[in-house]
Prior knowledge:
Layout lengths: L1 E2 L6 E2 L3 E3 L5 E3 L4 E7 L5 H10 L3 E4 L6 H9 L7 E5 L5 H16 L4 E7 L2 H11 L11 H11 L1 H6 L2 E4 L5 H12 L8 E8 L10 E4 L20 H8 L4 H21 L4 E8 L5 H15 L3 E6 L6
Parallel strand pairs: 5-7, 5-8, 6-7, 8-9, 10-12, 10-13, 11-12
Antiparallel strand pairs: 1-2, 3-4
Amino acid sequence: MSEHDGDGAAEVSTATTTESGEAAEAAIPELVIISGMSGAGRSTAAKCLEDLGWFVVDNLPPALIPTMVELGARSQGNVARIAVVVDVRGRRFFDNLRESLADLDAKQVTRRIVFLESSDDALVRRFESVRRPHPLQGDGRIVDGIAAERDLLRELRGDADLVIDTSSLNVHELRAKMDAQFAGEEEPELRATVMSFGFKYGLPVDADLVVDMRFLPNPHWVPELRPFTGRNEEVSNYVFNQPGAKEFLDQYTELLQLIAAGYRREGKRYVTVAVGCTGGKHRSVATSEKLAARLSAAGVETVVVHRDMGRE
């Protein structure tokens, strides 16, 4: 490593030398960039990856991310997976991040962005509980800081490979979500989360695709089925014996396979499919279970989450 005059930046080569003195191409580490809203759980997500064996760097200036990857490439395989927590609180930082991402893409570095999201209400509660100001609120209120940060991160959220909404998650549930996505020894081509939800509790903000099952009769109005959920066999049979239910499942599965193929071509590795009904108890749950089984059978590693089941 040699130092340059002027800005003092270090020149890092990604080549190593064999015993015979010949240059050998170094293995470029896998990279995950963790960002998102302050208070949404970035530190917890980073700790989870650290526990899974990732080399984690917290609050690294975005301009130094390519250098970090190059240093990892010089480690002769000792640093194969790097996670960087990026705290983008200024416009210049964001511009530097954009330039760094372009640099990584030009070098064909495998990189993914995990974005931690949360509702305004949940973030306000978290900041108030620890009695700390939001880093961007200045002389204003906590909600002012949240609004400023959300506006600043809007573009990054749109570029994220995986968005996790932590509004209703505790620490253990967030760790479980991270484990589900990253614990595998070999990275699959595509991971899917199929999430049932109730429209009366709001749309999942981390959904890539949303489907509405309210076109089917509601088992809630069948007294003998009302106490059960869509995981019950009788409820599931009732739902899929309705006109159009099986046809919908067949055709939507085909559509998802088409979308999944496109995601793979574009390098997107995660997709969240949200399946909704009125309360998130019967139709959406039954459909999510069937849909997840179909996706798994098609070779897509799938996790099922029932967001609102049990809330009634």
